[in-house]
Design goal:
The complex is a heterodimer of chains A (about 325) and B (about 300).
Chain A lengths: L1 H25 L6 E6 L9 H16 L5 E6 L5 H13 L4 E5 L4 H7 L7 E5 L10 E6 L1 H15 L4 E6 L4 H17 L4 E6 L6 H13 L4 E4 L5 H9 L3 E6 L10 E7 L2 H12 L7 E4 L6 E5 L7 H16 L8
Parallel strand pairs in A: 1-2, 1-3, 3-4, 4-5, 5-11, 6-7, 6-8, 8-9, 9-10
Antiparallel strand pairs in A: 10-12
Helix pairs in contact in A: 2-9, 5-6, 5-10, 7-8
Chain B lengths: L7 H30 L7 H19 L2 H25 L4 H24 L10 E3 L9 H5 L1 E3 H19 L1 H11 L1 H6 L4 H27 L11 H11 L4 H23 L6 H19 L18
Antiparallel strand pairs in B: 1-2
Classes of the chains: A alpha/beta (about 325), B mainly alpha (about 300).
């Protein structure tokens, strides 16, 4: 009896081992989709770079985890030459999609992409694919979230002065700021919006001093874009001024004063690109994240007691932008 | 309009901002003044500031003690200074290149530690403003000079102390002689290596403190590369200030005041493009440098390794 038990155990173990070995061979092998991304700041900057990283992680979850979808990244690539080297490196290692997340990487990508016709590249934020068949372009209509934030800020400001801290007057930042100003003007033309571009994406000290300057000038609501605003949020909190975020959800930095954040959900664009790549189209199209397609979402901070009428106004505005009844005129 | 700039609010705002913005430059540039006076160019200031900023922030965040954070930042800066001193004094390494090496080390290391230990941007409650009784109530003046945090006061207090040490003490004389003519100093029995070790470590300590002043006193946040070139500007301010603490103070204040002025220029809608406005501090500092500094001579032995002849 004892011998029989041993025999059975052995048979059982053997079958298990065999079936384990056989399993992958019987089902068709699923090829792993591999993505590399190069970005100018850190994956946890609570702004631009984090927005793409978080989106990739969401795509990974939806596609079945790290076994089905591999993410590698190079962060803090503020030196364009280093970024170019990283992009070329990833392309030569056979990644399916190499993302250059920063408008400053455009000319490097234009040079590199033709050398790797089998690799798909994505460049943001821009609309330009350089007419190349293996470059996708993506951007965010950040003026839309800016407009909603502007409507809210104009409604909530009692001093009727609002301050904006921007990096450099170009691209995504300029769109956001212009949209914000349009939202304020549409809600209450008497509210004054003071804008400050500090000329840097990384100078936390100057951004924070810009916020202090806005507060001295009478602002009781502030907003700002790019990763150096973390310093400005702290100054807004000290002065108990409201903050409106963009790019990532910034509520965690100052839970008492952040009203809402426009968050980029690039996964909407990324999934479309991945679908195209799997169907054999490697580029040549440009994508735009906006409120209507879910690429941009206004996330309210649950820790801030937003008055019901203001929230209703924000939601009407979001709906209006989505259905096209509100159009945002940019200068 | 231009006339909008001449109001009390704006003037007070510019001066108060300028004084705050100058704080990290002062710590770092005074430290650098000591090492350059002794003949050593330390280009690693930026890296020392970054590691100091991270050390101060992380210790303050985890222990809740701001002073422990300040001490750790100074210690980290001192250790980086010690390494720099070994490389430049004992190994006679080319100072500019090794300094850039230390900058890159500080940049990468502070980033790595931030990723591993924190992972996301957080905030701490930094040093509060100290209102000096009586003086802080004076309109305008009070807000500018007497309502700042302790590390701001410390930076300004450092200027007369540094002046005194450099000009009125034997140590200052030794530093000067080592920086001007190390051979002569050596023949008179001054230990050149020991003096340079001292000044480089002091420079590192103050750079670490400069970082702490950013991360737990002025901004209360740590982010990668948050110094954003301030360490290099501090090195430039030493040249600007002609290797004198008071000159460094003048340069730091000029640069910072113009920076805060340009913030107001944009806010007051004065029709100057923002790109021109943000350029102003750099352009004006260069102009003043050209106009004044051409007469001043750098320490003769600056960047020259000292090798004792037998």
């Amino acid at each position: 009896m004892k011998k029989f038990a041993w025999f059975m155990t052995l048979v059982l173990a053997f079958t298990l081992v065999l079936s384990a070995c056989g399993a992958p061979a019987t089902t068709a092998p699923v090829e792993k989709f591999r993505v590399a991304v190069v970005m100018p700041s850190a994956i946890n900057d609570l702004a631009f770079s984090q927005s793409i990283y978080d989106a990739l992680v969401r795509v990974q979850t939806d596609m079945g985890g790290p076994d089905k979808f591999e993410i590698v990244y190079s962060e803090n690539m503020f030196v364009v030459d280093d970024a170019a080297a990283a992009i070329r490196d990833y392309a030569s290692k056979g990644y399916n999609l190499v993302i250059a997340h920063g408008s400053q990487y455009g000319s490097s990508l234009q040079e590199i992409a033709p050398d790797f016709p089998e690799t798909s590249f994505a460049w943001g934020t821009t609309v330009d694919t350089f007419g190349q068949p293996n470059i996708f372009a993506y951007e965010a209509a950040s003026q839309e979230g800016g407009y909603v934030n502007g409507v809210l800020a104009a409604t909530l400001s009692t001093s009727k002065v609002i301050g904006v801290v921007g990096p450099i007057e170009t691209g995504d930042a300029k769109l956001y700021v212009d949209g914000f100003k349009a939202g304020v003007a549409a809600t209450n033309p008497d509210v004054q919006v003071n804008v400050n571009y500090i000329g840097s994406f990384s100078d936390v000290a100057l951004a924070s001093e810009a916020a202090t300057t806005h507060i001295s000038a009478g602002a009781d609501a502030l907003t700002g874009t790019a990763q150096m605003v973390v310093g400005a949020i702290g100054k807004a909190e000290e002065a108990n001024a409201l903050w409106f975020g963009t790019q990532s959800n910034q509520s965690s930095l100052a839970p008492s004063i952040v009203v809402a954040s426009q968050v980029y959900h690039w996964e909407v664009m990324l999934k479309e690109m991945i679908g195209l790549i799997q169907a054999g189209t490697l580029g040549g199209q440009s994508f735009r994240a906006n409120l209507a397609n879910g690429g941009e979402v206004i996330e309210f901070n649950p820790g801030y007691a937003l008055p019901a009428d203001a929230k209703a106004l924000a939601e009407t505005t979001i709906a209006g932008i989505k259905d096209g009844s509100i159009t945002i005129t940019l200068p | 309009m231009i006339s909008d700039l001449f109001s009390v609010t704006v003037l007070v705002g510019i001066l108060a901002s300028g004084i705050r913005l100058a704080t990290p430059y002062l710590y770092a540039a005074i430290g650098e003044t000591f090492s350059q006076r002794s003949g050593v160019l330390n280009l690693g200031v930026e890296g020392q500031m970054l590691l100091g900023a991270f050390a101060a922030f992380y210790v303050a965040l985890t222990t809740g003690s701001l002073w422990l954070g300040v001490l750790t930042a100074m210690l980290v800066g001192a250790l980086m200074g010690l390494a720099m001193a070994y490389v430049t004094v004992n190994l006679h390494a080319q100072q500019g290149i090794s300094g850039i090496g230390f900058y890159l080390f500080g940049l990468g290391m502070s980033d790595l530690l931030f990723q591993k230990l924190m992972g996301t941007v957080e905030t701490v409650k930094g040093f509060p403003k100290i209102y000096i009784p009586g003086l802080s109530d004076i309109p305008g003046i009070g807000e500018i000079f007497f309502s700042q945090n302790i590390l701001v006061y410390g930076a300004y207090l450092l200027v007369p102390i540094a002046w005194f040490v450099l000009n009125k003490t034997t140590l200052g004389l030794k530093i000067h002689s080592v920086g001007e003519n190390p051979d002569a100093a050596d023949s008179l029995g001054v230990n050149v290596a020991r003096i340079r070790y001292f000044t480089i470590i002091l420079g590192g300590t103050l750079s670490g403190l400069a970082g702490a002043s950013l991360s737990i006193a002025l901004l209360n946040v740590f982010q990668q590369n948050m110094t954003s070139g301030q360490g290099f500007i501090a090195v430039a301010l030493v040249y600007f200030g002609a290797w004198r603490p008071v000159g460094v103070l003048g340069g730091a204040l000029l640069f910072s005041m113009i920076n805060s002025l340009q913030l107001w220029i944009q806010i007051k809608n004065i029709p100057i493009p923002s790109e021109i406005a943000v350029m102003m501090p750099y352009v004006l500092t260069i102009l003043v440098l050209v106009a004044t500094v051409s007469r001043v001579r750098a320490p003769s032995a600056l960047t020259k390794p000292f090798e004792r002849e037998n």
